[in-house]
Amino acid sequence: MDHVVDLDDAAARIAARTPRWRAARLTVSPLTWRDRLAPWSQPLETDRSRVVDPESVGLRLADPLTCGELEVVLFRGGWADVDYLAADWEDGAPTAEGREPGGTIPAQGITSAADFEARLIGWMGDVFGG
Fold first, then answer.
1. Which residues contact 108 (CB under 8 A, 6 or more apart)?
2. Which domain holds residue 13?
3. Cβ distance 101 to 85 under 8 Å?
4. Which of 33, 29, 20, 16 is nearest to 64 (CA)?
5. Which tens digit of pLDDT belongs to each residue from 97-128?
6. H/E/C letters for each residue in the chain?
7. CA-to-CA distance for 77 and 105, rounded, in angstroms?
8. What's the maximum distance between 2 C-alpha atoms anywhere in the chain?
9. C-alpha–C-alpha distance, residues 106 and 80, integer Å
10. Is residue 2 a part of any domain in this protein?
11. pTM, entire model
């Protein structure tokens, strides 16, 4: 897999935003890392130092008041798996971007950690509002 995105840079950008997310009362789960060199099935690690050749980094955010959730796994090859339940999804109303209240957001062609951060900000707004 090509190294398109620096996962450590992406993790640093996530860490820089975490205090603001927590101040907004979001639950921020520890980052999860997958090591390309680990034997199958590669376990998810929360301790970056246990990962020799990171293939992905994952993030989960949740809003306990609205039940909104966003789960993102960024792969160094330049794509992400993005799943969500929009805030107040029980109402069944589409999100601000016209998406269903829950599902998957396509995320290919991510070119850098900065590009990922910009997309993450957009996904946050769509899922949690604001």
1. 78, 79
2. 7-128
3. yes
4. 29
5. 666 778 899 999 999 999 999 999 999 988 88
6. CCCCCCHHHHHHHHHHHHHHHHHCCCEECCCEEEECCCCCCCCEECCHHHCCCEEEEEEEEEECCCCEEEEEEEECCCEEEEEEECCCHHHCCCCCCCCCCEEEECCCCCCCHHHHHHHHHHHHHHHHCC
7. 17
8. 44
9. 8
10. no
11. 0.90
Residues 6 or more apart whose Cβ sits within 8 Å of residue 40 = none
Residue 76 has a CB neighbour count (10 Å cut-off) of 20
> What is the residue type of 22?
R
Contact indicator for 115, 121 with CB cutoff of 8 Å: no
How do residues 71-100 score in pLDDT, each as one tens digit? Answer: 999 999 999 999 999 877 666 666 656 667
Q: Is residue 1 part of a domain?
A: no
Domain count along the chain: 1
Q: Residue 28 falls within a domain, yes or no?
A: yes
13 part of a folded domain:
yes
